[in-house]
Design goal:
Oligomer: single chain
Number of helices: 7
Strand content: 5-15%
Number of strands: 5
Strand order of the largest sheet: 1-2-3-4-5
Number of domains: 2
Distance between the termini: 101 Å
Length: 265
């Protein structure tokens, strides 16, 4: 077999290079064409989606909410929750929301009086309730519910800030003395957070007695809001609870510790 010289092979490789170049250009052109067609079609559907959203917004204003215009700090959240729980609140739904909340507490193992539903309309709700049964009355429980028959519920709301030293332990002592043992202490917080201002032993003892509960904003709390919205008879109230629910989902869905502390001593 004769040896093939480099000069004789050159036309072959030149032809191969031309074919490869043409093939690459054709492939590149095909991909470019397909991408252009894809994005052209995508832009059409995006435009249809934008027009549909705009048309829907004109009719229902889904994105419009009062929570975009107010400073939603811990105190305001506590006020909203306290007002919803108050049988005499401006929501006009009587004991509906308080009843749903107490049933939620029973679901997580808290023990209420056997006849707790009797005279529920006589319950009182106080925000920033002074711990007057402690030697120093400098602390304030975010929400205190006083049920008929001398039973009390204290709610410590902690969406962002940390706890002060012995804060929950002191609240437990105040409720114990105020209601002679007939009480529940609720720690309302973000998911994954545990009370730190009460010893594990004291918390365990309260849990065994059904006197303490940790409620997660995006768990048990949202379940309560969902029940409230379903049971509310007034459209205005249902819309407000829907907006509140969306706010909680968007802003309180996880644990984000902050260095900022309450002004509680």
């Amino acid at each position: 077999m004769e040896d093939v010289t480099e000069k004789e092979l050159a036309p072959f490789f030149d032809g191969m290079r031309d074919q490869i170049r043409v093939s690459r250009e054709a492939s590149r052109s095909l991909v470019t064409h397909k991408l252009a067609s894809f994005f052209h079609g995508l832009e059409y559907y995006l435009q249809v989606s934008r027009e549909a959203r705009q048309s829907l917004a004109s009719a229902v204003a889904e994105s419009f909410t009062v929570f975009d215009y107010v400073k939603t700090d811990e105190n305001l959240l506590s006020r909203i929750i306290g007002d919803l729980l108050d049988p005499k609140g401006k929501h006009g739904q009587g004991t509906t929301f308080l009843d749903a909340f107490l049933k939620q507490l029973e679901k997580v193992g808290c023990k209420l009086l056997p006849n707790w539903q009797a005279h529920l309309g006589e319950a009182t709700v106080v925000n920033e309730a002074v711990t007057s049964f402690l030697p120093s009355a400098a602390r304030r429980i975010d929400i205190r519910i006083e049920l008929p028959h001398g039973f009390g519920i204290g709610i410590e709301n902690k969406p962002w800030a940390g706890e002060q030293a012995d804060q929950l332990a002191d609240y437990s002592k105040d409720l114990e003395q105020r209601y002679k043992g007939g009480f529940i202490l609720v720690f309302l917080c973000r998911r994954g957070r545990k009370p730190e201002s009460i010893s594990d032993a004291d918390r365990s003892a309260l849990e065994q007695s059904g006197k303490v509960a940790t409620l997660d904003y995006t768990g048990e709390f949202l379940e309560w809001l969902s029940e409230c919205r379903m049971r509310a008879e007034a459209d205005k109230v249902r819309h407000f609870i829907k907006d509140f629910t969306k706010y909680v989902r968007a802003n309180l869905s996880g644990t984000e510790p902050e260095e900022e502390k309450d002004n509680v001593q």
